[in-house]
Design goal:
Blueprint: E1 2-10, E2 13-21, H1 29-47, H2 53-64, E3 66-76, E4 79-88, E5 93-99, E6 105-108
Length: about 110
């Protein structure tokens, strides 16, 4: 048995959970879901359901006049969205939520 300590973050509260997994040491249990998610993204790009990160980055940098310094792609109930951290020319960092299918900036803060 392999013991794993998981640090969980729920709404700002951090808690640690100890799990005992019946998997042999070195088994990539968590990489399976990441690989599946990666395949989902590639298939969605091929189907035209979302733009590539490079296109979204160019659109966001042009519209918001800054440089993308961080990104995250996530699936929501409204479809795929990119969460981008953008450093503006004045040095301030903003967060932009961008619709991954259209490149439309949904919200900024």
């Amino acid at each position: 048995m392999k013991r794993v300590i998981c640090i969980l973050l729920f709404f700002g509260a951090v808690s640690a959970v100890q799990l005992t997994l019946p998997f042999p040491s070195g088994t990539g249990v968590f990489s399976v879901s990441a690989a599946d998610e990666h395949d989902d993204v590639l298939q969605a790009i091929k189907r035209g359901e979302l733009m590539t990160y490079a296109k979204i980055k160019r659109i966001a940098e042009a519209k918001l006049q800054g440089v993308v310094v961080g990104q995250k792609l996530r699936r929501t109930n409204r479809g795929w969205q990119y969460d981008l951290r953008i450093r503006r020319k004045d040095g301030k960092v903003m967060v932009a939520i961008v619709d991954a299918r259209t490149g439309e900036i949904v919200a900024t803060r």
